[in-house]
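Q: I'm building a small set of examples for a reading group on sequence design. Run inverse folding on the following structure and report the sequence directly after it, with nothing in between.
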């Protein structure tokens, strides 16, 4: 992940459907405060919503940490880290593939979230949980789509 962090802005629990609403609201407000346009805000909120839902449904709950980041004087961004202590993901490559789901979802969560942000990192250990970190930047074009 690139950029210099300005410190943790918020740490929100993810333990219920109501917490998913708080995550979305916080991300939208933080992105707007950093100068993200409406489309950029929507992409980041959508990614955060998917990742928070995965944290709750597949990880048994956890937290989201939000921090402002910057590159130089002009680039402002928002880094979101989702952590759970759930069962972890045995096959990350498969989990990131569109259409794959270990539950009753559409299988667009991880792969879709990855396409909606500028930077995406995932660390998962079976039996120990999963951490997903995403970063989006204000006024920066999205990264190129990776071919499968």
């Amino acid at each position: 992940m690139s950029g210099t962090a300005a410190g943790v802005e918020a740490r929100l629990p993810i333990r219920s459907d109501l917490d998913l609403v708080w995550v979305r609201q916080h991300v939208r407000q933080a992105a707007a405060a950093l100068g993200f346009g409406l489309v950029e805000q929507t992409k980041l909120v959508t990614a955060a919503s998917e990742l928070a839902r995965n944290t709750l449904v597949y990880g048994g709950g956890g937290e989201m940490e939000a921090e402002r980041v910057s590159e130089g004087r002009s680039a402002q961004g928002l880094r979101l880290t989702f952590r759970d202590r759930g069962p972890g993901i045995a096959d990350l490559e498969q989990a990131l593939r569109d259409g794959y789901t270990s539950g009753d979802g559409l299988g667009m969560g991880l792969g879709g979230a990855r396409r909606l942000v500028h930077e995406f990192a995932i660390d998962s250990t079976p039996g120990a949980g999963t951490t997903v970190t995403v970063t989006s930047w204000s006024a920066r074009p999205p990264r190129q789509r990776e071919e499968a």
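The chain has a mean pLDDT of 85.
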